[in-house]
Amino acid sequence: MRLTIRLVLLAIALNAGSFLQAQNKVLIIGIDGCRPDGFLAAKTPNLDKIWENGAYSFSAQTDPISSSGICWTAMLTGVWHEKHNVLTNEYKDPNIGEYPHFYRRVKEQKPDLKLYSIVNWSPIHKILQKGDADIVNYLLSDEKVTQRVVDLLQNDNPDAVFVQLDEVDGAGHRYDYVPESSEYLKAIEKADELVGSMITAIKRRELIKKENWLILVSTDHGGSKKGHGKDIPEHTTIFFIANGNDVQKGKIKQQVNVVDVAVTALEHLGIESEEDWNLDGKVIGIR
C-alpha cells in the first residue's frame, strides 16, 4: 500500500515538474478592420470558442488616428503614436530606435527564441529591424498567410508568431464596415475559418504537452461608410481576446487598449517590461 502511494506521489511530482517546464509560446492573430459588433454578428464558431473560454473585451480602444500603420505599430511596439511616430500608412520616420517592435525586446534578452511575422499587408514590416524576426513573410492573400502559418506550426518550432489577416478590412472598404453588410460578415466568417486552421495546427503539434501557448486575437481598427481613420467610436473601438492556461477567464473589467498586446506577449515570454522602455501598454488578461 505504501509503495502504491509513493508511486502515485512520484507520478504527480513528475507531472507537476513537466508542467512547470512547459515552454511559453505566443500566437498573435490580427484581423484587420474587424469591428467588434460585426464580429459578434457573424457566425464565428472558432473565435467564439477562444473568447468564451478565455479573457475578452469588446470595448477595447485603438489609437485615435485609426489607420492601419498607426494602429499596427501601436500593437507591436506597446506605445501610442506620439512615441512611435508612425502617423500615416507611409511610415515616414518611425521612432523604432527608441520604441522598437517588441520582437527586438525579446531578442535582446532571449536571442535563441524563434520569432516569426507572417502578414498580408506588407507595410507592417517597416518597423522590423535587422535581426528582429527569424522569418518575415508577406503573402498576397489571407489563405496563403494561413497556409504558411499552419506549415510553420506543424513543421517548425516557433516561440512567437504574429499573423495579420487583411481581407476583412478589404470587405469593409468595398461594402461598409457595418454588421448589416452581409459581405462584411462573410469576410469575418472566412477569417474565422482561417483562425480555426491555425488553432488546429497548434493542437496537433508533437510537443504540445510540453508547451504553454497564449493565443491573442485582436484588430487594428474598426470603420464606417467604407472608411476609417477618425477618432470616433465606430473606428476606435476594437476587441481583445486572450486564451491559454495562464488566462484569467471572463470579461475583462479594466480598460483594454491596443498597446496592451505587445506588453502581454512580452510577459508571457518571460520578459518583464523595464521602466526605461517607457511603454504605454500593460499586461492584460493573464495571471
Brief characterization of the structure:
It is built from eleven helices and eight strands.
Report what the structure shows.
The chain has 287 residues and is of the alpha/beta class. Helix content is 39%, strand content 17%. The protein contains eleven helices and eight strands. The protein has helices at 2-20, 36-41, 45-52, 68-77, 81-84, 102-109, 142-155, 167-175, 182-203, 233-236, 260-268, and strands at residues 23-31, 55-61, 115-119, 135-138, 160-165, 211-218, 237-243, 250-251. An eight-stranded mixed beta sheet has the order 4-3-5-1-6-7-2-8, sandwiched between helices. The longest helix has 22 residues, at 182-203. The model is unreliable at 7-14 (pLDDT under 50).
Q: Determine the oligomeric state from the structure.
A: single chain
Q: Treating each run of at least 4 consecutive H or I residues as one helix, how many helices?
A: 11
Query: What are the low-pLDDT stretches, counting only 5+ consecutive residues below 50?
Result: 7-14
Which series of helices and strands comes N to C? Answer: HEHHEHHHEEHEHHEHEEH
Strand order of the largest sheet: 4-3-5-1-6-7-2-8
Q: What structural class do helix, strand and pairing data support?
A: alpha/beta
Binned strand content: 15-25%
Counting DSSP E segments of at least 2 residues, the number of strands comes to 8
Q: Rounded to an integer, what's the Rg over CA atoms?
A: 19 Å
Q: What kind of sheet is the major sheet?
A: 8 strands, mixed
Q: Output mean pLDDT.
A: 94
